[in-house]
Amino acid sequence: MAHQIRAVLFDLDGVVVFTDKYHYLGWKKLADEKGWAFDEEINHRCRGVPRLASLQVILDHNHVELPQEEKERLADVKNEYYRELLKEINEEDLYPGALDLLRRLRAEGTRTACCSSSKNAQTVLDALGIGEYFDAVVTGHDIENPKPAPDIFLLGAERVNMHPYHCLVFEDAESGVEAARAAGMKCVGVGPRERLPSAGETVEDYARIDVQALLDAGRVRSVPAEPWSLTEDEVRPDRCPYWETALALTNGVFGVRGTFEESEPGYDAYPATLVNGLCGYEPYHHIWKMPGFPEYRHAILNMCDWVNIDLEVDGERFSIASSTVRDHCRRLDLKRGIVERSFIWTTTAGTEVEVHTERLVSMVRRQIGALRYSVKAPQGTRLSLTSRTRLLVPSRVMGGEQVRVRETGEEDGIEVAVQELVTSDDAAAVAQAHSPEGERSLEGSDFVFRYTAETGATLDKIFGVWSTMDGPEDDIKPRAVEEVASARKAGYEELRREQESFWARFWRDADLEIDGPVQDQQAVRFNLFHLRQGNPERGNRSISANGLSGDQYSGHVFWDTEMYMVPAFVYTQPESVRPLLEYRYSILDKARERAREMEGKGALFSWNSVKGEECGHVFEAATAQYHLVADIACAIGLYDRMTGDDAFLFEKGAEILFEVSRFMEDRGCYVDHKGGRFCLNVVCGPDEYGCGVNNNAYTNVMTRWMFEYACEVYARMERDAPQALEALRARIGLDEEEVGRWRRAAERMYVPYDDELGITPQDDCFLELDPVDMDLVPKNTDIRSHHHPLNLWRMQVIKQADTVMLMFTQGHRFSRELKERNYRFYEPRTNHGSSLSPCMHNILACEIGDIEDAYGFFRQTALMDIHDFKNNTAGGVHSACLGGCWMTVVHGFGGMRDYPGGLEFNPVLPDAWEGLAFPVTWKGRRLKINVSRNEAGVTLLEGEPMSLKLCGEDMELTAAGDRVAKPLG
Ligand code: BGC
Question: Which residues are responsible for catalysis (predicted)?
């Protein structure tokens, strides 16, 4: 498997071996001869310091002044003593576990280098006989600029032939950590965290290192592998932002990041409640504004922080950063949709206090969140809980004053505030109630609630939000209060029961069971959980690239939803898809406007947006991705085929379909030079490293399918819903002649093919671009910031699955051989710079039988967020990748294809798995697929008889309970 980290560079002294003793003895011998004072403390000050500078430390201590030449001579003398003493060096001087770590790394195929500023490094390696553990050695002889200059590590990377991005450094000195950072490498500090403040990770005991986590994500340890949960068992300030995302709870309507309850947690916390659809606007400042350039960007806003509760015991306030805490643990319970936290706090007076908190964001009551804070303390202890809801909180991606509090009030113990958005017409009401009752006040723009007790307390806080996304402005306040009143009446435990039953049903419909490493199982469930909780199931909202767990992508919705998330939903809980498609309908007018701005007809959806207006200012990799409209059509088609929901299709789906077909037919043209074929010029395919290309195969073939589908839907409406069709035709001015043009464009669509290579060219010029030495291109990172666009556009390097993706999305149109040739041509040219890439490669790799590669792509997808593979999970989960994970298991290893000819399964198992089981909902039926090493079976759990293909053979399922099976070779 291609790991993120492919080379590990080791400093020598203090990392692989301790030469301290010999340095000490060398200096000591010299000092004794000269009659200077020298001890362990002075020796420590000389650690990692060049020889002459070390001598100066000793001279200063002894108040001795010497001419430069004499100093140089004495430094050489010491070096001679040291080299002589080194002959004594032996295994006992090795850093405990270092050789074992090197062995483990090399067994994984990792390249290793020793990068030491010491000119004696080679002598040390030889004396110990450990040179064979390193592929390359860089010593003080090779470099001019010492650490913290990056030179030593850059040379190490060059000598092991690896891009710095894929290198990780082990260093015990802060200057070395800085050097690694300057070289653009990840770094593990060897020694206590306090001594190495710039190291992301530190380790003292090599035996604790989880090599897989190290190679996947540059981390010393992965989160504990558990089948149904994700546990934070160690609080580290630098990892807290990651946990805020991993433990974020949302229901698609609003989401709350997994911040600690207490204020001042001692790190750069981002307590945020993101409400889907509530956005702030700010103008773009274009140097040269061309027609169609967006005037404003908008981004989702942080509306409040309602999870803040501070605990005081006998007047002392709890602080996660400075209090004495043990058994601290936070845990996302995937089965129940709850985050729990527990710890024991010993106050400065020695009182032991047990704390347990729980929180949920209700999937049943989408306006409601709840938090329970329980404390137990010995007799006679005074407890005070202060719960604060901050109504004005900063947003990370949208500065300035974005929210104002219009009014606050209280009704029957429920506090409510109306917040208005400064740059848009939207408004929200947030309401809350506590139980038991306490003392309420408004401090500035914070609702403050104080509750005091003795010995023990359980405080429940119910929070609700109702916004103009949910209904008319006049209603928001009463509705927020009503929702909270009703949730309060139900009580925390009932809310929790509702949550549990929601998730129980979800897991019944969608769980992916893996008989293999627990970490794989955990990862797929974690991804499914975050995916499902991101779906608002409200027809005017969708799922953003980060869901509501973070706002790195400004809450924007991309093609991610239709192409990467809809499949998982449509084959498990298809009813949850309709609102996602309705969201597109709700912004259809904006898409019409956008088409006009782009001098086109029909409708063009904006590449990245929440409210419908285009926010993508890098137009060549945003607006130019016209394939988005075919992707939306594809999701409509999938939903239509799975549900037969004509009401949606004829009322809304068809209108979207016809309007976007109209745009694309108008955008394309018949090109004589291409045999009079219909071409789509100056577009961007999924590969965003290209620009303004002609005939991107993905775009053309997907658009052809869209035209065909639009014609089919038109014909169906003529037959089944003539009145609805008539009304629609009148509304959008559509006639037979135009539909004929779509049919003709589909028939005449230009689909590129290269006879010489026997592959599908990604576009008209891709094969003519400059070949690239992919060893010099870092993987799994967007390299647009590494090159001027004019240079990148010339390079034959691909960001993400493009033609490879087409081989799956329109798989029935291509032979297995062509798929394989395309995969073998494109994958080596792909740097997987987007998290959307590995999953598609997994699916194709499974289909062509490259199962171990497929497993590597599965792990990159499944562990994207758990391992924080791209170092940006703090900004929110990678929503497309969550859905992509489902696709790797079901379409990849499960081999499920839902072609026009019917449903097929061609399962394969990676070596690491013994089995796989998953449910699928298909056209009203529920199926269960079980795969073991020996056999693949499909059971009809519920629904009408059906036929399917299993491992290439036609099979019938004649009644519920029926099972068919085939031996697996
Ligand atoms: C990818 C796009 C994707 C977007 C949001 C980009 O890096 O290239 O395909 O839609 O991220 O996830």
Answer: 11 (nucleophile), 13 (proton donor/acceptor)
